[in-house]
Amino acid sequence: MNKKEVWKTAAAVLLLILTLSTVIWVIRRDRKPEDLEQTSGSPAAEETAEEAAEETQEESREEEPQEETEEAGQETAAGSQPEDFEKETVLEAGEQAQEESEPYEPPVLAVASDIHYQSHAITDFGKAYYDFIAGGDGKVVHYLPELLETFIDEMISLKPNAVVLSGDITMNGEIENHQELSQKLERIQQAGIQVLVIPGNHDINNHHAARYFGSEKTEGQPITAEEFYEFYHNFGYDQASSRDPASLSYVYPLDERYWLLMLDTCQYEPVNLVGGRIREETLSWMDEQLQAASEAGVTVIPIGHHNLLPESSLYTTDCALENYQEITDYLESWHIPVYISGHLHVQRLKKHDGSPLTEEKLGPGPRLDAKRQAEASGEEPYGIYEIVSDAVSIPPCQYGMIRWDDEGNMTYQTRKTDVSAWAAARGIENPDLLDFENYSKEYIKKLIARQIEGKMEPVSLQFLDDMTGLYADLYQDYYAGRIINSKETYGSVAWQWWMRLLPKSRQVREMRAMVGDSDKDNNYLYLPADPGLPEG
After folding, report:
1. How confident is the model over 507-535, as pLDDT tens digits?
2. Most-buried pick from 143, 289, 341, 378 (CB within 10 A)?
């Protein structure tokens, strides 16, 4: 290589060094302060960082007093550091994930009907009061306050998700009964258990409301529908997801899978009637609720006071809804699995028999097509079940417990209110309460004896105990929904005395009806989950 080439090479290297130095200087000049703090090994960079920090501190001193600056520094030191915040965030996320992963717990529901609560505040326990009891239908009137206290204690012990009272919650709708009952029900609510109330035909605008002082009963003070809401707004109405503007009906979401459609089936405007029906306006409101439930994949359980289906050959009037055929078809069109009621005072379970439905009733469309397909394939037609809960106020003073499992299968089981155990646990010495089952039977016998002894010859009164004993046994089994053995009943000596002495009496007709209706047990129901709702 000659000298000229050496000088050219040296010049190129020098030019390259100068270019690199210029690039480095430009990069350092354009960097942000935080980048400079992270740069190591450069005295110029360290000096620049220190100068920037000093300038920042001087500006801070000019803007804030020294004491506030020190306090802010202490708060920063004492506060959560970034790594602490990250740990807390991870912990909270873990706890939330754990909560979300908890398994679903199906609800438990208690169902009671016809408490017919009677306060002792509207009587002096004189002649008028005992005449009222003597003309009754078996309600243990004198001990209804104790019966209610027993029921409340059992609810608090069982801890269901909700307690349903499906109407006739007072004797005859007296304002004193409503006042006292609503106050007592608060004890269940205070235990964290929601009480859900709907009216029965006894509860609103009841012209039979009375007080019993001295030898004559006097007119009592009934309540209006507006007053019913005022007494019971905390027992379902204020917790409802929707309320019917036309009645005292509402929807209560039991949980994310089940809604209770609490139906006001009573007729009390302008006057109170025994029979019930569902208003056309209420049906329109029900359409909206059932559509919303269908879209949400929720099962709806309707609960009303009056019966959906004719259930008894003993009680044949004013029990089923006046428009029960229309309502049955309507609920089946939504594939509602079960309807729960009271009113009858008799424990019953019944499936709608799927009797032939005409094309006029079904109308053209998916329902009629589904029915024809089912008939062609030999499948059993769909039919809604009804659970009629017997009266808590009448022996054996039962209520029902409903449970669902994870798959949606439902079981219903009756349970007796155990007044004797309640009285013993509280040290009560009243023999009627300590042996409430025997007291109840003797109570029914006395009621029947008063009704028939005037129809019997004096010589026949020696058979009175046997005759009334048979009636009381049938009465308790019938109201409890138990099987009655017809062969044993009609073959008994007591029945022969009835046939000989009072063959055409009302009591004989009643006993025949009781036996005829009681060929199966009505205290347990297993209802498999509906695999799917119908389309359309």
Report:
1. 999 999 999 999 999 999 999 987 544 33
2. 341
